[in-house]
Design goal:
The complex is a heterodimer. By secondary structure, chain A is an alpha/beta fold. In chain A, 33% of the residues lie in helices and 17% in strands. Chain A has 10 helices and 8 strands. The longest helix of chain A has 20 residues, at 194-213. Chain A starts with a helix and ends in a 32-residue tail after the last strand. The relative contact order of chain A is 0.15. Chain B has a 4-stranded mixed beta sheet with strand order 1-2-4-3, covered by helices on one side. In chain B, 28% of the residues lie in helices and 28% in strands. Chain B is an alpha+beta fold. Classes of the chains: A alpha/beta, B alpha+beta. The A-B interface holds A 3, 5, 8-9, 12-13, 15-16, 18, 21-23 and B 15, 18-19, 21-23, 25-26, 29, 53, 57.
Chain lengths: 269, 81
Amino acid sequence: MAFTNEQLERYSRHIILKEVGAKGQKKLSQAKVLIIGAGGLGAPAALYLAAAGVGTIGIVDADEVDLSNLQRQVIHATADIGKPKVQSAKETMEAINPDVTVNTYHTFVTSENVLDLIKDYDFILDGTDNFPAKFLINDACVMAKKPFSHAGIIRFKGQLMTYVPGQGPCYRCVFKNPPPKDAVPTCKQAGVIGAMGGVIGSLQAMEAVKYIVGAGDLLTGYLLTFDALKMEWHKIKLPSDTSKCAVCGDHPTITELVDYEQAECDMKK
Amino acid sequence: MAEFNITDSVDITDVNCPITFVKTKVALEELDDGDILEVRLNDGEPVQNVPRSLKEEGHKVLELTQNDDGTYRLIVQKVGD
């Protein structure tokens, strides 16, 4: 595929980079990335991946745009209230970059559909807001051997890590099991500073782009945490022994996907 | 003027910075290590910046000469793949 002059101009700041070049930009245009959650994390990630010219972007979300989303979910506008988030996200992405094909999935992720959702994608972004979904996405990506970026945000804090099959620990290696229901507040109960989604979601997009073009080092084997009140970053090295993990270890005890129970206030209506 | 075994040519007189370098870079990426690219470029900013950017990426600038029409002819050898 040859770039048109318009594409050369659109992606010129990428192509100029030694680590990207025309080859890297072609890889981006051929790549397929799935974003699960069109919320605080997924919104900025989707904007940057669309702008970057990722050829196919899938977006999964069961919700409709709500007024309370707009403080941080920057892909949606006031006029989108009531619209499925995936539809609103698709319209914004296509408006930014008509080169991009956006596939929408207006659904929750469940043990029934997750493997089917991820199977055609090269890289997955977990932008969900609850532990059951995070463990489900981790386990599905381990089982399907898909690389993915985990992230979570709450109040003034954020964290992320990247899983690549065979290259380091998975989310369950680090966090074992979801916390007891209601033991941990969701961002709805606890609040979250809007720009935190921008910081961490953009880093997820960064990991996806680096993975696709093959540049630099990913957050495999590390958890990166950010405390905005103290403006402190920590890059925490994770234990490299994954052999005893219940899902990605040598003798996994989790061989089927589990739908953990969700805290009640998270379930809409 | 030395004779070069030119593999491909690109004309960047119809575009401005940074597309000048982008077009040159895209043309080079199609070539193999050691191949030679001929670039037709304008005086001024392109002559100042394109050869320098190519050197920064590790390529070998072999020659830069002025054409009769005022444009320049840059001969660059690709280094690496």
